[in-house]
Prior knowledge:
Low-confidence stretches of chain B: none
Oligomer: heterodimer
Number of helices of chain B: 0
Structural class of chain B: mainly beta
Strand content of chain B: over 45%
Mean pLDDT of chain B: 91
Amino acid sequence: DSGVTQTPKHLITATGQRVTLRCSPRSGDLSVYWYQQSLDQGLQFLIQYYNGEERAKGNILERFSAQQFPDLHSELNLSSLELGDSALYFCASSKATSGNTIYFGEGSWLTVV
Amino acid sequence: GNSVTQMEGPVTLSEEAFLTINCTYTATGYPSLFWYVQYPGEGLQLLLKATKADDKGSNKGFEATYRKETTSFHLEKGSVQVSDSAVYFCALTAVNSGNTPLVFGKGTRLSVIA
């Protein structure tokens, strides 16, 4: 158990819909990262937050957004969903912005039908 | 930019065979290097890490040595078990990693047969 908690574990939704994935980081970790894992793209970094502020942005689509709340939990919002958005979405956390070990949650499986 | 290159899989070995999964990197600055493992149907778990040149990370019988001269961090295990079947990811973080806090290789799938 890494200490990073993600909900829901599985989600099936239709094209065009919007979903929210939730992440609670490890106790004491200020940085939260979101990654997408798909069969064809591998592990893609989406976005990072540090203590409530966006710190780094990767290959995140405009239809996707995220935020980190004062209690440090984070949410990833995916809207206007397409079939190609079906993937495993990981949240991870660490104590600093870079260079420290990053611990991953078990992921949220999203299936868009 | 920073990048990680892993050997292509899948790798299939018999139980008790020796395992090597090659990993090389390109990075500016002084990266920390990691191996993560993903067992079937599960999330990513940190397997081992090394934060400076010549450091050896080890865990569960796996080892990897940070080789700055060859920019490599090869994963090794002397005797694999069926339970080691998983996908292994080499990764790095660096102070100057730009917009990607953790850069992953594409992963190497290992299958161990009894």
